[in-house]
Amino acid sequence: MSNTIIACIDGSAIARSVCEAAAWVSQRLDAPLRLLHVLEKVQSHNDNLSGNIGLGAREELLKQLTELDAQRSRLALEHGRMMLDDAARLANEHGAVQLETKQRHGGFVDTVLEQESETRVLVLGRQGEDHASLNHTLGSHLETLIRSVHKPILVTVGKFSAPQSFMVAFDGSETAQRALNAYAQSPLLKGLPCHLVMAGHQDKAHSEKLQYAADVLRSRGFEVSVMHLPAESKEDVQAALKTYQRDHHIGLMVMGAYGHSRIRQFFVGSHTRTMVSQSDIPLLLLR
Asked: Where are the beta strands (DSSP E) in the chain?
């Protein structure tokens, strides 16, 4: 049954916010939390030996490198277990429900996808260990996961605080309409004031779609503030949404993700990628 909150952790600084965000989701949904750490394959040194080294020396070097690789694997395994123990203590302190930890060997994306049938919400950081110093850089696996996982994904971007309100970046697209049906029915956001915001699309059809979305949310018991902001370009849209979010002290962004093909995004760019990379607050992405 797809009722487990899966939180992906590593040794990056953002792992703490992932744990805190996952505990918040677990508590809000009264759903079990699984902390997952994936040990990806460590590059072996065995295929880097030069054919010019003498046979005996090469065999001795191969033996030493093999022992070194085995030691590195054991240390990585132990380090992962320690990280999971620390993460479990932190998640428990923040109210996680039915907590468990798992460590797996393999490819990160493949490992997460293997657990998709059990997943209710996937929680992960915008950056992993390889990008910890680049504030607005997407981690190497993040975009692939957002495209591949057809479950809600909560992306943390820095220090996490339980949101007191949320903002929906709504553009009236089919992706936005599907996302609307998902979060309107989810208990995750129940009781939180909603800011339903559209930037650009200053025409009657989009205004009607915005009003329809507001009516749907209100029918589900949400307190909704509606705003239609002027914007001429994609850059204007990003700036308008960010300014509104900051001015109203909003703690969570909600939006549909990747509504167009990779080919089209090659030419026109990706709204989802830009929003995730530029956001200063966590994002809840829905497909």
From this structure: 4-8, 32-39, 97-105, 119-125, 153-156, 166-169, 194-199, 224-229, 253-256, 283-286
Which tokens belong to 60?
């001795």
Residue 162 CA to residue 225 CA, distance in Å, equals 20
Q: Which domains does the chain have, with CATH numbers?
A: 4-42+79-156 (3.40.50.620), 166-286 (3.40.50.620)
**Could you give the CA distance from residue 270 to residue 276 in angstroms, rounded to a whole number?**
10
Both tokens assigned to 131:
């990008």
Specify the amino acid at residue 51: G
Q: SS3 of 122, please?
A: strand
Identity (one letter) of the amino acid at 245?
Answer: Q
Strand partners, 228: 198
Per residue in 190-240, pLDDT (tens digit) is 999 999 999 988 899 999 999 999 999 999 999 999 999 999 888 888 899
